[in-house]
Amino acid sequence: MVKRRHEPKRGHGANDLSSLNNLATSLARRDQLDEAIRTLEAALALEDAGVSAASRAAALSNLGALVLRRGRIDRAITLLREAIALAPSLANAHTNLGNALAARGEIDEALASLSRAVALAPDDPVLHDNLLVHLHYSASTPRSEALAAARRFGAMAAAQARREALAPAAIVDRDVTRRLRVGFVSADLRRHSVAFFLEPLLEGLDRDRVEVVLFSNVARPDEVTARLRALADGWEDVSALADREAHARVRARHIDVLVDLSGHTAGNRLGLFALRPAPVQLSYLGYPDVTGLAAIDGRLTDVIADPPGSDEEGVEPLLRMEGGFLAYRPPSPAPEPSPPPSAAGAPFTFGSFNASKKTSDAVLAAWSRILAALPEARLVLKDAALADEGTRELVRARLAKHGIALERVSLRGPTPDLASHLAAYGELDVALDTFPYHGTTTTCDALFMGVPVVSWAGATHASRVGASLLSRVGLGDLVAKDADELVRLAVSLAGDRERLASLRSELRSRSAALMDARAVAHAFEACVREAFTAALARAPATEAPHEVALPDREASWRTLRDGTRMATPRALSQMTAYVLEEQRDWFEAELPFVRRLLAPGEHALDVGANHGVYALAMARAVGPRGRVIAVEPARIVAARVRASAEANGLACLAVEQAAVGDHEGEAWLATGASSELSSLASGEAPGTERVPLVSIDALVSRASLTDVRFVKLDVEGHEIPALEGARALLSRDAPLLMLEHHHAGVVNEGLLAWLEASGHALFRLVPGLGVLAPLGGAAAADPFLLNVFAATPARVEALESRGLLSRGVASDDEIPETRVWSEVLTMPHVARLGDQRSFGARDEGQAQHRLAIELWGLAIDPRLSPRVRTTVLSYAVELAVASIAGGGAPPDVGRLLTAARLAAMDGRRAFAVELLETAIVLLERNQASLAEPFLPPSARFDTIDPEDRLGPYLLASALEAREQLRAFSSYFVATEPKTLHALEAIVKLGFADEATERRLSLVRRVQRR
């Protein structure tokens, strides 16, 4: 038993630097930047000899990144250099320093830091992203170097994708004239420049020809997010999903063409694209260059931004949109253009509102020549980075170095809103584009406000976007070919006051060419169809693994969360069909464990495969170098598994239509109401079919299958004969076994005795942790525990070494101090309860409740050993239950919900339902008061802010958890009025998610029958 001495220590523990660093990160994710900064500054100010240099460096790096987000660039650089001095190999500190240096225009120094970060952590895609983005700001970096960096990223991403062993998507419907399903993936479906160009495109698309699905990676949605969602035919939030899970979402939508809108910018999902979830994948809009991914089939552009002949060998092909590749949407409301300031007698004023990092020394050198030629002219620079005094001083020094008198320059920081930002263009006569990285939104904004822009076209897309935009409004003559021409054009335009006045009044109407959303949408669709047609030519029908006929008229295709397509019964009266429709997966917690258990190249058996949920998952896990044999006695069911294997391109999966026993021959299969309930019969009778009978040993021998690592056995009470027929396999390979040991509510004690007598130790899955623990205790008696695992000592040791199994109770010395409390306090629902920092000191029940939550934090920490995690979870359940007993009457609802969550995680599902039933009664009677931190009964509610609706939040969370826990699926309780009442209540309370709405729809269909 874990002793009370593992309760968090006072003093040092409360101020632990790593814990506070984690707290600051959590606060920052919620945009509570000032609180995050104060937390870290206070922590770093403490004198603590026990803090390692590495911990202090990590905190300094984090603080540097946070203050950079607040625009305090000089302070950020100081902090980050201090972090690097303490820990020179801390890659994040180098990349954060690079970002800070770039923000104030020191591009060469920034690139050195960013390159150092990549060298220190070459497998971190975020570090590659930062370097690739910032290479565009440098006028001195050779193009070959930028392409090499992109290819290095591509090679890394491809290697990571291969480890996932997911089959690439293929084209299912080859009709090129049909309505195409086009998906867009972006983190910028919010108030962001990308959204300003995307929104008009979506409005302009012909929805009879294009179906739009948006895959949002937005962390904090806003009103623009809501507008974009309303424009989409489908919406998927993938912000909290790993690439593999997001891959399944894309596959489930049967996307024909998937479009990346981010490239290497922040929040991108290039790792998802590397997994090839769609047959055609394109890059567009958000990034001005190649991604380096071989999985990107083309980049959308136009003939000016990327002229014919500019295609580069070995990178994604160019698809040129006729007329221009951007549809501009100005902010609203927008002020009217004002006359040029020089017309009213003010000094002639040039300006640039581009990011300071784009204003390199080469740019300042060219602009200094313009100002030298016009001694009375002024220059206005405007950027958020210029709010920082240190950055302004640096810019002044750089201007002075190029001979630009400081009294001729005005440095402006950000304006409070977009309308005032646009109004600031009224202070300019002419805008100057940056190079080699042109402006895009800034150029469009300037033209819309009547301000002409002078640009210099280079050889790359990033250095030609300005030329593309200017040509569309009839200002192609303001695009220079070199620095000399740039100076000449700017000086000449400054002298043509009549033309300037005319442009001031004409450019807004001319900007309509940039805002022709229908034309841009038409060109976009044409390029998308071109890419789709090209993909058809590359992949003839015989190569498309998804074009597989269903094996019978009673079958239909269903898609799981991981993208697997399964041939299943059509009728929802069949258990498999209903469960997969409801949950997009099988209901057992063992399935995700099996997906983690098997590694590429391994061998496994699924005996009693039914429709193949486990077999298909096992085949995906072992990949093309592994082998899986699925054994299913029912002829039509086995045929469906074969069809599913073919549809998913899983050649490693073989299907054997047979029953298993201890000898060879024939048997009679009694077919149940659902295929899951079919079992062997003693002889021929109504409702039986004759099936082959094989032993597992004979099956494995015929298949020449060796080194079998895992066997799933589901034979409805006939396990012992099946195991008797597998003695040679068990002796030779000692695979991990997974068996159903419950039949009709009765534990098969004879099976457990057989396994123990044959030298196997027995384990159960701890569902909340995804690890195996010794079979025993209260969870072993839970009626929801269907499966046990059995392993020999050698297999136990191997699984323990992989972090998949715990074979004992951790000692006190193995259990670290808890550090989760500070993060718990930042959960949205806890933050609504007021200051809780001293919670736990009032009485024994409160102390038990707090410690239970803190131990939960240890239990979910994957860095700890399974033995520690299972030990502290078990103890957390005991403490949570004890805190309820000591909490008075009626019991505290928060403690009931916490205990229910912990009990469910530990596998005590029936007990969790009892706790939830009590909580629901109290909540429905308004007898619940809440004033202390707690864990919601399911993790989904951890990130939901109840705002001022804490009561509905509590009731919805309890009802949802009860419905998920009291039955494996609503299939078993769909006819009960209680089920319908609970699901409708969750929706009415306003906290339903897609899974709840899907479950409610099915229950309503059943009750209408």
Helical element count?
Answer: 39
Average residue-wise pLDDT: 89
Largest sheet geometry? 8 strands, mixed
Radius of gyration: 32 Å
State the total count of DSSP E strands: 29
The class by helix and strand makeup works out as alpha/beta
How far is the first residue's CA from the last residue's CA?
A: 53 Å
Q: If strands are numbered along the chain, what order do they take across the biggest sheet? A: 18-17-16-23-24-29-27-28
Shape: globular
Account of the protein in words:
- The protein has 1009 residues and is α/β, with parallel strands linked by helices.
- 44% of the residues lie in helices and 13% in strands.
- It has 39 helices and 29 strands.
- Strands 18-17-16-23-24-29-27-28 form an eight-stranded mixed sheet.
- Strand 14 and strand 15 form a beta hairpin.
- The model is unreliable at 1-15 and 541-546 (pLDDT under 50).
